[in-house]
Amino acid sequence: MAETANDSGRTWRGQTTQERQSDRRDRLIEAGIELFGTRGYANTPVKAICEEAGLTERYFYEAFEDREALLDQIFEILIADCRRATMDAIENSTDELGASMRAGLTAFAHELTRDPRRARIQEIEAVGVSPELERKRREAIHAFAAIVADRTRELGGKEKIGPLRLDVLALGLVGSVNEQLIDYVLGYLEISLEDLIENQIAAFTAVAGQLYE
Question: What is the pTM of this model?
Answer without folding.
Answer: 0.87
